[in-house]
Design a protein that fits this description.
CATH topology of the largest domain: Rossmann fold
Low-confidence stretches: 1-20, 174-182
Radius of gyration: 31 Å
Number of strands: 17
Distance between the termini: 63 Å
Shape: elongated
Number of helices: 25
Strand content: 15-25%
Helix content: 40-55%
Number of domains: 3
Length: about 550
């Protein structure tokens, strides 16, 4: 057996033994109990961290306990790297490549003796090789694996600088104050609002993260534990929502924090822990100009009856466009408006219209049950936060077909797919009838994207429209919706594709070419349109 193979076998044997025995040995020494070990092992399955660091995070042991345990197990001195500064000349004694490969770190040099921090100080082959190559006596000391990883990461980032213990502690997810206190939820919500984040994501194993201009950015905070996420969820949820979550492992709700704002929240289970997607809700609906909504949208919103569909991916402002249209009606018409939302996000004020907002799960069990009774509530306008099933769509179509204005959102790639998906929801023998009803009742199908502005100061709306003109009605009746995009690619009065809108934004210098390309439906068509007349300086 050669030296390299023996070294590997020695390390693997050490790792396998200690993966199996680390927790049990701590139980034998009275440092933890069986229940605490089970909790730590559950956490380890979620975030793949070392068991010692997890026990520290959970507060079951302290740093002194861990260091004493490692020292007694290996029979060498244990060193706390969080309390140790290492000079650059000491760090240079061993090539950085070998430091990373062997998980070792030179800590101090006195005469001919080098103090070497090791995760496995029983690796005698590595010690022997270093004594031979360096011509120095090696004094091995043991350090926890998470400390070694933090130190090596710092060394790689700043190879010619001193390693400072306090900086390692601050960088590590095991900084003492951070582990005990965590970041308070209101502080995270304030941060999300202050930087105009569209979402705050809280999930075990990662720091709190904000989605800003379509990009996820992690905060410089410790990784969240399952206990952190559960505490946040319990803090935000009313008792009835917590009970729903326990039963279903997924729940939507909204919550208001005084002085901070209102938030829409989805709590869900992942890898045996809770995660939260939190979206700040606007307190006041921006004007159509601020939202980049075209003036023609008002004409459609003020129609006395028919169906308006707003589609697009999650997080691209469908709900905001929906609320803006409701606000337009509220400002111009004396109507009775009934909304069905899951959850209620923006609280509308009664202006010219009366607005009753019904929350699914609170005021009505489901969208379907709410829609079944809505016609008995004397509505002029019915607003459905999201269409999710064919039963709800059938009622909505009937309502729009019999003299009510229905406005809704759905997940669909574009405006034509939204129409096709509506028909395809139904059984084949019903599709002809649905197609006829849709041809007669549809007002407009919209599809939208929020695109990062070129100066990264926010996002701008690109809005595709499919107006149900006489020509489009015939196309729907004849089941030829798939032909719309190819036949009307250059844009017509009744169809303007998202590619045309994205290209227009680029030609005006409002967005970057690559951001438009990422969101385009037909990328070659977008490129052709965008490059036909580039803005100055591009």
């Amino acid at each position: 057996m050669n030296s390299k193979t023996g070294n590997t076998d020695n390390r693997d044997a050490f790792v396998n033994i200690h993966k199996m025995r680390f927790g049990e040995l701590m139980i034998q020494l009275g440092l933890i109990n069986q229940k605490q070990l089970q909790e730590a092992l559950k956490r380890q399955s979620q975030v793949s961290e070392h068991i010692g660091s997890i026990l520290l995070e959970l507060g079951y042991i302290n740093m002194e306990d861990l260091l004493n345990f490692l020292s007694s197990q290996f029979g060498v001195r244990a060193v706390n790297l969080f309390e140790t500064d290492i000079e650059p000349q000491v760090l240079k004694t061993i090539p950085h490549k070998k430091v990373r490969e062997k998980k070792i770190l030179p800590v101090a040099l006195q005469g001919n003796q080098l103090t070497l921090a090791m995760v496995n100080p029983k690796d005698l082959i590595t010690i022997s090789e270093l004594e031979f190559s360096l011509g120095k006596k090696i004094d091995p000391v043991v350090v926890p694996a998470f400390m070694m990883e933090a130190a090596i990461e710092t060394l790689v980032a700043k190879p010619s600088e001193r390693i400072r213990g306090k900086e390692l502690e601050e960088k590590s997810s095991l900084g003492k104050e951070k582990v005990k206190s965590g970041t308070k939820l209101p502080a995270l919500l304030k941060k999300a609002v202050s930087v105009n984040a569209s979402d705050l994501i809280l999930t075990a194993g990662a720091p709190p993260s904000l989605r800003i201009v379509n990009e996820l950015q992690r905060l410089s905070s410790p990784a969240l534990t399952p206990a952190d996420c559960e505490a946040y969820a319990r803090e935000m949820m009313p008792d009835n929502k917590w009970n729903d979550f326990v039963d279903n492992r997924d729940v939507d709700f909204s919550v208001t924090y005084q002085g901070i704002g209102r938030f829409r929240v989805n709590a869900y289970n992942q890898r045996n822990s809770i995660a939260l997607a939190i979206r700040p809700v606007l307190e006041t609906i921006p004007s159509p100009e601020q939202l980049n909504l075209p003036q023609w949208l008002l004409d459609f919103a003020l129609k006395p009856s028919g169906l308006i569909i707003v589609s697009g991916p999650a997080g691209h402002g469908k709900s905001t466009t929906l609320y803006a249209m409701v606000d337009m009606i509220n400002n111009h018409k004396r109507y009775n408006i009934i909304t069905l939302e899951d959850p209620v996000e923006y609280m509308h004020k009664h202006k010219k219209s009366n607005i009753s907002q019904r929350e699914v799960g609170v005021d009505t069990p489901t969208f379907y049950s709410g829609l079944k009774s809505v016609l008995r509530q004397a509505p002029d306008v019915i607003v459905v936060g999201e269409m999710r099933d064919k039963e709800s769509f059938e009622i909505a179509l009937q309502a729009s077909y019999t003299g009510h204005l229905v406005i809704t959102t759905m997940h669909a790639a574009n405006s034509t797919v939204a129409v096709e998906n509506t028909i395809q929801m139904f059984e084949p023998h019903k599709q002809n009838l649905i197609r006829m009803m849709l041809a007669d009742s549809l007002i407009v199908s919209l599809a939208q994207r929020l695109v990062p502005l070129g100066n990264n100061s926010g996002r701008v709306l690109a809005l595709e429209r499919l107006i149900n003109s006489s020509r489009i009605k015939n196309i729907i009746r004849e089941a030829k919706i798939h032909q719309i995009r190819s036949q009307m690619q250059q844009g017509t009065e009744d169809f303007t594709s998202i590619d045309i809108e994205l290209a227009n934004l680029y030609r005006k210098g409002r967005i970057k070419f690559e951001d438009g390309m990422m969101l385009a439906n037909d990328k070659s068509h977008y490129r052709e349109l965008a490059e036909s007349k580039r803005p100055a300086g591009h």
